[in-house]
Input
Amino acid sequence: MDVLLGIGGSDDSLRALDRAVDRARVAGDSLAVAVLDNPDSDRSREAVAERARTALADAGLGGDVRTLDGHPGSALVDLAEAEGFDRIVLGGGETSPLGKVQLGSIAEFVLLNATVSVTLIR
Amino acid sequence: MSRVYPDEVAGPYDAPPRSFTDREDRGIEIRRYDGGFEALAAMYDDFDPEDRAQGIPPADGERIREWLETITADGGVNILAWHSERVVGHATLVPDTDDGPTAYELAIFVLHDYQQAGIGGELIRGLLGAGRAAGVEHVWLTVERWNQPAVSLYETVGFEPSDTGSFELEMSARLR
Output
């Protein structure tokens, strides 16, 4: 399966990176990573891309790491459709102080707009 | 991102205890949580899964207790509604360390058979009164947009929408 992981640098997106890499290795999936412009993230896109390249290389996976400009959700959905990915994978949100699940704005957009399957990693 | 709070103070409301008769003629007492952990946990054992919101309360007994340990820890404010010897409602303020030392996240839970009887309104007023007495200044919450009874209650007691751009509506209030 061709999987596209979208990460913007939030904590949940970095957890999603680790889990998606593990899963791709076990399942034999091809994993590409798109680094998104998440205005809520403190991490630079270059630092996030470097982390993704390292994670893929450490796992022996040869997937692409790309940086996408513009509106993060729509850029990810466009890429998935234009290049025929089977699935989009994203971080599944943060937890509030009270323990409530809070979905990020990118995940909300992708869930409502993607025509391919979407996996949220909790 | 910093959250926006209303300029006006909500209330102010009195801190508990208080007693009242609900719309089903039941005598209800609103009191501060006094450490009676199992009475509180028993309410969540009886909680209707349909009334869960955004993953809380957790579904099983052990995870309910872990979650309650966290939200009843020092630094928060917890208020219970009692019907006779049974806890039927719980309202809580949990400190939000990401948003400065004085912001608290609010949530309120009422057992299904005790909903729509006026208990939620008394609980939240008691909680806001206790929070104000404890020095709490800023309170926020998220609520599912379709939950109009809850949104109306929050508006009635002084909450205003602070983030309307996502699945859940975020609302905030100022207590002092």
Remarks:
- The mean pLDDT of chain B is 93.
- The CA atoms of residues 102 and 137 of chain B lie 6 Å apart.
- Strands of chain B lie at 18-21, 27-32, 77-83, 86-95, 103-110, 138-144, 160-163, 168-174.
